[in-house]
Here is the input.
Amino acid sequence: MKTPYTLFSLAAFAIMSCHDSHVIKSASCCAKDDAAVSSIISDKETNGNSVYQLPGTWTDQHENQLTLSKLQGHPQIVAMIFTHCTAVCPRIVEQMKAIRDSLPESVRNQVGGVLVSFDPDRDTPGQLRQYAAQRGLGNQWELLKGNADQVRELSMVLNARYQKLAGGNFSHTGNIYILDRAGNIVQAVDGLGGSVHNADAVLASLVVAHQEPSSGRPNEFYTGKIL
Amino acid sequence: MKTVNVILLAVCFLLPLKHFGEALPGNPHFSHRSNNRMVCIRGGNYHPFLQRKDQPDVVKIHPFMLDVNAVTNAEFLAFVKANPQWARSKIAQLFADAGYLKQWAGDFVIGGDKIDNSPVTNVSWFAANAYAKWKGKRLPTMAEWEYAASAAPVGMSKRARLTRIILAWYDHPNPVILPPVQSTYKNTYGLYDMHGLVWEWVDDFNSVGIQGDNSGTNVKSFFCAAGSLNSANKEDYAAFMRFAFRQGLQARYTIQSLGFRCAKDFFRN
Here is the structure.
């Protein structure tokens, strides 16, 4: 009776100790330090960590077909939600808006918002468009639907967890992800936590680092859309 | 309703014949070592191990096809050769951690032939998922896998024996060289090694561990979540460990004792 518990603890410990358990490198210790944040960016933007490597075509609220790589070129605030969610998702969206709104206007205009639906069956482009209107999400927001496989894959790269429930709703984790211009996850913020931590400072540094040519990155790399 | 079930069952038994074609030499993916045919698992009711109070305690499983063996190193090598972006030195960090295929001698070399026919391990969820797609298959869902794995070993009628096999396996350290597929037991569906050889990825392993935990790596919260849920069988420590293991996983992890097998929808065939 004791053995399974012991083994489980050992197994769980082994898993955790073998791995850097966070894909996300939190910048919490140094977000106000531009140099430190810049070094995270330059370390990461050239490697194979970009979420935008995921294949597949998504449909947005304007019925445009796009690959995730279309989001490249600007820092993005990203979360996974479903529009029929009445409790948790509206809070996540409000939190995302609060993060954007806390940015100075010049920075804010450089930062996009992305909501990806867990619910391809019910979240049609029309439904997403209506949701965007209800929630006051302007043209700097992309609301995306893909097929069930794409949603699963995206949840895997974001390390989000979800389960479809019998009634058609979803049980899910509620993180908000800050992505740099290349699509690397720079920070995950608890979308239900009440505090946005330093997400605004992180975003501001991402934008500022891009605007300063001294950061030594080739500009032609960022050929994403203009929001 | 009963008639429908009988018809489904009949089709289900006939269908595997069609899939023997996969192992025939005419198939471009043929490997002389591969005997990984699929069998049909007839649908039925699965009682989730972790039950939510607001959810039905029975999940309907539709008939599906499942590989009889875990995917082997030799089979996976064929995939990597055809899709070199999944080679050890090429794979993007997003899709696998540093241990990816570390048991191999090189990008396209398993090394020796001792493990050719052993389950491929040290593969991330992304790699397993890509392999399945390449084969025109998919990973089984957690409910499908658990349902198929709950079948008794051939010749052993009592479920208690299955639990004993599993717990005995948990109790022993993993062998340095993994035994080949079909080296443990066959269950009544005709599936080999569902327990006792390797852990296996499932498509939706990240549906475990949602409550109260965003990182998916917090053991303590698993216990808390487990406390707020109702385990279908509190004696079922074997299942408890599988779910705990899944909760600790992230899709890019590679683990020496974690492999996979593929599934297919029955009705789309």
About this structure: Chain B touches chain A through 45 residues (CB under 8 Å). The first strand of chain B starts at residue 38 and ends at 41.
